[in-house]
Amino acid sequence: MPLYDTIIAGGHVIDPASGLSAPADVAIKDGVIAAVQPSLNSADATNVISAAGQYVTPGLVDLHTHIYWGVTYWGIEPDPVAARSGVTTWLDVGSAGGYTWPGFRRWIAEPAKSKVFALLNMSSIGLVAPTWELSNIDYCDVDLGVMIVEKNRDLIVGIKARIDPNTTRGTGIEPLKRARELADRVGLPLMVHIGGAPPTLAEILAEMQPGDILTHCFTGQPNKIIDAQGVVFPSVKDLHDRGLILDIGHGAGSFSFETAEKMLAQGILPDVISTDIHQLAIQGPAFDMPVTLSKFLNLGMTLEQVIACATVNAAKAIHLKGIGTLAVGAPADIATFVVDEGDFTFQDVHMNVRKGRKLLVNKMTMVDGAVLPQAEDLPLQPWSALPEHQRGKVIPVRPV
Ligand SMILES: [Zn+2]
Fold first, then answer.
1. How many angstroms is it from 393 CA to the middle of ligand 1?
2. What is the pLDDT of residue 80?
């Protein structure tokens, strides 16, 4: 009887949770990590997967996604994307509200081969439609939110509120105040999306606390976190220093190279890099996690830093134990990548272009010790046209 089921051999292991970045083999037994050693004996395993020339990382944790396919405007199906991108854990942020939660659990989270967790939307209708979910204050029902969270703590790890003029439409800051109350009553982090104003950034920050998550943190929209001179607002910097988590949430409208460059120049890196993948973003310029991470690689972050932002940092933000790490005993959620060298083209949501030499490419995605099979995406929904200024203007990352 071999000691291990599988050894992933000959790769360069990057496990930011333990600080490891070195050549090493990874052994798996019964779906969990059994050993990470400079060299393991391949005769000790039933299967050997060669990772020669590849990086071996914890399966990626995408902290901002929309995967409630068929019930929401935004949702994509997670497993086909997981299998080709290295994402093994999805955080769906607010696609489901109280009334649509049972379907999310039964039809999305439970059948998925990849791991699925969620933030409950402050709006009881969630993201059925593109926006306006907070415009009817009757849908911001704190008691309902508490009931749903208490019955679903295995899957619900926080609360989500999108705060901008379209989502709120006249209800102002009240939905966020209720989201604050809900998050406090259930003792979970609150993720707030910023974009347009009103409400103002100052009004939004006043409701946020250390341990909360500010998503779309490098937006170029009116509520961006830098001033006209490109300097980060002291209120944001102060709250970040005290534990506010800055999450990218690229999406179709929420990542600006200009904001990113100014923030990085001030030495403020994102804590978490996430895609905000959905029906539009999947068409580019966000595309997926490897492309989104590659943008930060080409902005000057190291491979170890970007992998940390998409593994251990993301897992910590929502207090997931044993996820985003290659620690012995953790579930064997593992991804392998190469970094291609070439002439690559990246765009932000404003369609500004930056050229880059590095492209992270996923080679294998494993969940609980089993390689995820490649699968075709479901077709896009009939309504999922890119915004006018992006339509027909997405440039392929790799020269064609
Ligand atoms: Zn989103």
1. 22
2. 98
β-pair partners for 337: 55, 362
- Partnered with residue 247 across adjacent β-strands are 215, 272
Q: How far apart are the first and last CA of the chain?
A: 49
Q: What is the pLDDT of residues 348-364, one digit of tens each?
A: 999 999 999 999 999 99
CA distance 29 to 331: 10
Range 178-186 contact pairs with CB under 8 angstroms and sequence separation of 24 or more: 178/122, 178/140, 178/142, 179/122, 179/140, 179/207, 180/207, 181/142, 182/122, 182/142, 182/145, 182/146, 182/149, 183/158, 183/159, 183/212, 185/142, 185/146, 186/145, 186/146, 186/149, 186/150, 186/159
- Is it the case that residue 305 has pLDDT exceeding 90? yes
Q: Identify residues whose C-beta is under 5 A from ligand 1, the ion.
A: 276
Q: Cα of 292 to ligand 1 centre, how many Å?
A: 14
- CA 6 to centroid of ligand 1, rounded, Å: 36
pLDDT category of residue 221 using cuts at 50, 70 and 90: very high
Residues contacting residue 124 through CB under 8 Å, at least 6 positions apart: 97, 98, 99, 139, 140, 141, 144, 145
DSSP annotation string for 36-100: EES---GGGEEEEEE-TT-EEEEPEEEEEE---TTTSSS---HHHHHHHH-EEEEEEESS--GGG
Residue 305 tokens read as 């830093």
* Predicted model pTM: 0.98
Question: For residue 33, what are the contacts with CB-CB under 8 A and spacing of at least 6?
Answer: 26, 27, 326, 327, 328, 329, 330, 331, 332, 334
Burial-class residue 42 by CB neighbours within 10 Å (0-12, 13-18, 19+).
Answer: middle
